[in-house]
Design a protein that fits this description.
single chain, alpha+beta, Enolase-like, domain 1, two-stranded antiparallel sheet, 3 helices, 2 strands, globular
Length: about 80
């Protein structure tokens, strides 16, 4: 199985602005991002959440860590 989760968030306050999910189970995963967005949550919500492991939902945590790492890199290079 292959696919991708992409989280779009505001660098200023880390608020989740959107999510792209590609793959066979996308319809089973998108509601997680929708819930965070509806509640006004940020990317840190995925870090604090506990997901069953190994599951595809756990990929949100990996995507959040990647996003935060990229944010950190952009702040250190400017």
């Amino acid at each position: 199985m292959s696919g991708m989760i992409k989280l779009i968030f505001s660098p200023a306050d880390k608020k989740l602005l959107g999510a792209h999910i590609i793959g066979e189970q996308a319809s089973e995963l998108i509601h997680i991002a929708s819930h965070v967005m509806i509640s006004g949550g940020g990317i840190d919500e995925f870090i604090r959440a506990v997901y069953n492991y190994p599951t595809l939902a756990d990929l949100y945590k990996s995507a959040a860590y990647d996003g935060l790492e990229n944010l950190e890199k952009s702040h250190t290079t400017h």
